[in-house]
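Action item from last week, closing it out:
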Amino acid sequence: MKAKGKGMRNCAAWVTLAALWLGANPPATAQTGWTPRGAVEIASNCAPGCGPDRTARTFQKIWQEGRMFDAAITVGNRPGGGGIILYNQLNQRADGQMIAIASGSLITNHIVGLGPSHNELTPLARLFGEYIAVAVRADSPIKSGRDLIEVLKKDPGALSIGVATSLGNSNHQGVARALRVSGIDVRKAKAVVFNSGANAIVAMLGGHVDIVPGSVGLWVPHLQSGSNVRLVAVAAPMRLPGLMAAIPTWREQGVNAVVSNWRGIVGPRNMDPEHVAFWEGALRKAVATEAWKKELQQFLLMDEFITTAEFRKYLDEQHIEIKELLVDLGLAKN
């Protein structure tokens, strides 16, 4: 009986030690820290079907199909006001249950007085770079980006630029930055605004404007169909792959102009560090999936994933660079 009692006491001691060890060292599969409770929303500041909305729905699908966390995921659309409507609502959600898609317009709109500063939000991650390509009609005498620069050096108003959807945005910058670094007075360049990239292209093909800058994804169907457009430059830091592999960058043509309509994720201002850590982790897992890599490849998007600290620094630098250009364009005050 004594031996049996001693064995039971030893067993109890081992159970206690094991419980203490597990408490200090939880299994790798255990959830730690904050996680969403109830439905979460990933929202964009444009209508269903727009680029940011597509990004939101891609994440929704990846997270749901991969069962990456338990909460239900909805996609919201808050168009209007240069992002003011979306970001005001986002800043009312301190619970961590709502995040939003952001793009280069976050910086541009604030500079021209149409939206909040990036400092009024919490940058969570930059996802990718969507670079701007510059096109002319296939029968245009402009054969290259260098040709375009030389023509406009002689007369800045000699060619008209079809811009979708507002002056000063990433599309406009894709040409204006190249002109500026080439010593051309960008205020004298002739720009015509259209309400969509498709309408700007129709106008160019009809001979109503000479040049259309647009994100590389805009040109994919035209490159695939062999339509009558010629891409003369892409505002990327290096030559892009796939369908864009034959298109030289501005830099290759002696013009140091890089313009990206980047896409990222932001949260409300002063976001709780636990909420930030959760979303950084969820986004890191999503961008490592084959589904995400396929999305980037299909739309010629460049993987440029960075998280909060680096993203904030990038936005600070972008604000300085873009403000200088918009001041020169007469769209912002110094």
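Closing note: The chain has a mean pLDDT of 90.
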